[in-house]
Specification:
Elements (H helix, E strand, L loop, with lengths): L1 H13 L1 H28 L11 H4 L8 H18 L4 H6 L1 H6 L5 H35 L5 H31 L3 H30 L8 H15 L3 H13 L11 H9 L8 H32 L6
Helix pairs in contact: 1-7, 2-4, 2-7, 4-8, 4-9, 4-11, 7-8, 7-13, 8-9, 8-11, 8-13, 9-10, 11-13
Length: 315
Amino acid sequence: MGAIYWKELEDHFASWRYLVLVILVCFVSIFAVWVASQTIIDNVRSYPTESVFLRIFVTGKGSLPPFFEFVMRWFGPLIGILLGFDAINSERSRGTLSRILSQPVYRDAVINGKFLAGLTVIAVMMGAIIVLVSALGLIQTGITPSSAEVARLVCFYLISVVYIGFWLALGMLFSVLFRSTIFSALVPLALWLFFAVFMVMIAGAVADWKEPINSDSQASDLVHNINLERQVKRISPLGLSWEASRFVLDPEQRTSDLAEPGEMVESQAFGTPPTVSLRQSITLVWPHIVVLVGLIGICFAASYIRFVKEEIRAT
């Protein structure tokens, strides 16, 4: 497996696809952190808060989403799909797969090496981007992160790698199922657009149907509507990763659902601290991470079983 792993790693880092993707992601990340830094500088004196440095990752402006949303909604799935959609069928179409398997190489070593190589590329890319964004934020704002903020960034890094790893596993699954690289690319891209665009509409429609809001609605009705919309969004991996990243990067996020107005007043009366510890945040997001890891396991196991049992002939 080691030979397959290092060969795939070399191919990824030497490909034009990887270079263009890195340049595009870095450009958008730099622009997002620049806008966030300007917003933080303008508002930090008027609205002081803890964990100021983390606001670089969660602050947007107008129609421009924050950095973490760029990663979870747009570039993360794109990176995973591009690394995995032609992992197997491109080898099959070129006739190199049969030549590889004619050597003393086990089939599981091929698919394991390809998946681990793609996951390594994702880990390296996300680590470099987060370090770049942190450095630019430090230069722009002059705010140094605390040890607690660094720990939260590490958790965000791990969540992002797991989330993008899901899209890598999904892309590899369709690469095994379809002989055409066009179909193996279009199907995961269609799923990505469904989760990124249509799932938001579906969640809002379900919430408005089950918990309608009108001019006579109370504050509690609005809370129920928002909570139901969030629960529906958790059906998608994008919703899970978005919520997990938000909880980790924003210590002020105390619960997965909005609290009732009476509960908010009660917590203020008892002097509940405005932020939560990293351990409490991890407790909130742990179910999200477990589900994402489970989805990776399902996709990879399906592609593994199909690839191992598939008949491959020399062409």
